[in-house]
Amino acid sequence: METIADLTHRIEASLDTIRPYLEADGGNVKIQQITDDHIVKLEFLGACGSCPMSTMTFKAGVEEAIKKAVPEIKGIEVVNLTT
């Protein structure tokens, strides 16, 4: 069984594939928590935290990258997502 540390490593690797795009617009993303029931809680940083396109960025970029790389994740939430 994978530990939270193993999941964190795999999620970070998936986020590293999209970070250059976030950083190009002055933003980034950080893992805040991975729960025991495999829910990932993220925080958008920098420009991503207040960008009106952050919902689309989350759905089309961040969420997709994590689900593809770590399919056992049950859900992904952004704690500071602007809607």
Defining key terms:
alpha+beta; 3-stranded mixed sheet; 2 helices; 3 strands; 45% helix
Task: Describe the 3D structure.
The protein is an alpha+beta fold and 83 residues long. It has one domain: Fe-S cluster assembly (FSCA) (GMP Synthetase, Chain A, domain 3). The protein is 45% helix and 24% strand. The chain is built from 2 helices and 3 strands; from the N terminus they run H-E-E-H-E. It has a 3-stranded mixed beta sheet. Helix 1 runs antiparallel to helix 2. The radius of gyration is 12 Å and the shape is globular. The termini are far apart.
In short:
By secondary structure, the protein is of the alpha+beta class.
- Distance between the amino and carboxyl termini: 36 Å
Strand order of the largest sheet: 1-2-3
- The proportion of residues forming helix, as a percent range, comes to 40-55%
Tell me the structural class. Answer: alpha+beta
Compute the average pLDDT: 91
For the biggest sheet, the summary is:
3 strands, mixed
Radius of gyration: 12 Å
Topology readout:
Blueprint: H1 4-24, E1 27-34, E2 39-46, H2 54-69, E3 75-78
Parallel strand pairs: 2-3
Antiparallel strand pairs: 1-2
Helix pairs in contact: 1-2
